[in-house]
Amino acid sequence: MAQFPIILVPQVIAQAASPQGRGDSLHLPPLPTRQPGKPRKPKPPRFPGPPPQRWDTLRAIGVGLVSLAVAIALGMIAGLFNPDLMILIYALAPLLSVSIALRYLIDQLQFYPSRMQAYQQRFQDYEKQLKHYQQVVRKIKAWERRRHQLLTAVQKYQERSLTATSQERSLSALPPNLYWALQQTLSNDRNDSQAPRGRSEEKFERYLKKFFPGKIKTGLSFSIPDYPHPYTADFAYVDGDLNLCIDIEIDEPYRYADLSPTHEVGSEKDKKRNQFFLRRGWLVIRFSEEQVIRSPESCCKTIAKTLARVLGNPDYLKPFQSISDLQPMPQWTMEEATQMALHRSRDRYLGDDRLESSRPQQLSFQGFADLTLGERRTSKSS
């Protein structure tokens, strides 16, 4: 059964932080080259032009004038051999040119549906080619950004290896592979989040900033492709020197507005969000709302333990020697979250102003029919 806190680490960072990845040598993936990594840029498609007109009077007049000129030229040639034939041709030339122009207009009207259909097919082909062209251009730009990122990371690592002082080395002492993995982390692209903040966020923020001064950011958000609203981290732990970022989330069992369950076991919405951050090199730590309200210092210790484990630096735990470990809490199912909403269980711990106790607390779904989650499941099984 899943339980809080939920701690997720990007695969590239987890591998680099493992004992096998903490070697002294830097194992970089090969830099992308033009063949076959970089896609070739195709020629842009040709626009099919304006749609056909039902009547093209100017072109019909042009056809009539051309036919009249041809008739006059034939009359002049015929006059060299038979003057009477020349007079006949000149007499019929205007009627002939008008007839041809009218016939052209009639053909235009008659074949207009087929011409329009052919044009629409060409335009659809053009749109498909344009979409493919734009996709290839985006891939090329992504390839170029990736190549630049790789080259920059290698250069930064080489410069760091040559110029870092002994004090800097002792403070960070990052293995080369871990340093390289952290350089691939992508930062946020927006700082204009309008996401509302709850009472638990306001209280927990004080503890986060107390234990991690200068590292806690709020309002950081990420644009989501083909979606109007961004992802916004409840809290972001950002170490600019190491390029290490953590998305810190507070999960409540239901929404106050409509009492609808949320953050339940197997939530596809949470899975998509977690993968979004993991693909960008961010660690993800999810606490239950009850945990951050009842044991905020222990939650901070969990963050410090994650940093110590990933970076291999136990110094992160020094401020937490007198603080107890966070008690795990089972993640609720949809049915349990529904019952918690009916009993308004959030009011029980959100109304408790005693945010932190020096002794460890047994966390449970308070207010859920006056039973803890473990007791409720035990009674069901019996």
What do these coordinates show?
By secondary structure, the protein is α+β, with helices and mostly antiparallel strands. Helix content is 51%, strand content 8%. The protein has 13 helices and nine strands. A five-stranded mixed beta sheet has the order 2-8-7-6-3, with helices on both faces. Strands 1-9 form a two-stranded antiparallel ribbon. A two-stranded antiparallel ribbon has the order 4-5. α2 runs antiparallel to α3 (83-110) and α4 (112-163) runs antiparallel to α6. 23% of the residues are buried. The model is unreliable at 30-36, 165-172 and 353-382 (pLDDT under 50).
Task: Supply the key terms.
single chain, 382 residues, alpha+beta, 5-stranded mixed β-sheet, two-stranded antiparallel ribbon, 13 helices, 9 strands, 51% helix, elongated
